Amino acid sequence: MTDSRGGTTSGRYELMLRGLEGDPYLTYDCERSSLEDVEIEVGHAVAWISWHPHRQARWLTALSHPDDSETSARAAIEVALRLAQRCEVEGRSIAGITLPRGGFAMLPSRLRPTATDDWDWWCASAAAGGLAPPRLLLSTWAGTVPVRDLHPDDPRLAALLALASPNAPIRPGDPRVSRWAGIEESGGDLADAGGLVAMVALVPMESGAVHLNDVATHPLRRGRGLARALCATVASDVLAQGRPAVTLGMYAHNDAARALYTSLGFTCGRRNTSGSLPPG
C-alpha cells in the first residue's frame, strides 16, 4: 500500500502502473495530468483522485484486477476508502465515485450515490500482444458510407444530440474535441437535424489514444448500420495515424451498442458503475 500525495503527477501515474501493470484503461485513458492522489495494492487494485478543470470537480476512481477475484474486488474498495477518508480529513470534497460493478454495496452509506450509471469501457488497440488489433474488422465497414468532418459550431450537432442522445457527455464547442465527424443524408423527414443522420466526437488522450464520444444516430435512421460505418471509418483513421488505441464508454444496458462495437473488434475491458455524491 502506497500513496503519492507529495509526488509529481508523472510519479503518481508511474505508481498506478505498478499497481496494475499493463492495464489497458490505465495505459490509454487515465489522464495523468489530472492526478491528485493515489493508492495501490500491487497486483490487485488501484484508486486515484483526479481533478477535472473542465468539470470543476474532484472524482474518486478505483479499479480492481480484471481477474474478478474476491481479493481484488475487496482491495479496490479498501484503496477507495483510504482515499475517501483522507479527503474527508483534509477537507477535499469529492463530487463522485467510479467503482467496479457491484462495488457500491461494500461502501458505507455516506459514500453511496443516490443514483448510479452502469457503463462499460471498450478498447481497440494497435499494440502487438495487447488487445487484438481490429483493423481487419474495421476495414470491412470503413468507407462504406461517406463520412464528413463537421465544424464544431455546426448547429446540427446540438440538434441531433437533442434528438438522439440528450445526455451525451461532450457538447458542441468543447475544446477537448479534435474532430467532429458525421454522415449526412437529404430527405424531408430529417429537417429537424438538417440532414445529419449520425455523428461522433473524437477526443485525444494524453497517452496518444483517441476516445470516441457522443456516438449518435437519428431515431429515424437507426438499424441501418450508419453508426457502425461511422465508427469504423474514424477508428481506422485513428489507427492509420499511428495512434496506439481507440477507446470509448457505453451504458451497460445498450445491447445494440455492444453488438456494434464487438463487430468492429473492440474489446470490453472494464465494467464500472459511477455516481455523483450529494454536495457537502
Automatic annotation (TrEMBL):
One of its GO terms (molecular function) is acyltransferase activity, transferring groups other than amino-acyl groups. Residues 145-280 form the N-acetyltransferase domain. InterPro entries: Acyl_CoA_acyltransferase (IPR016181), GNAT_dom (IPR000182). Gene3D superfamilies: 3.40.630.30. This is Unannotated protein. The lineage of its organism: unclassified sequences, metagenomes, ecological metagenomes.
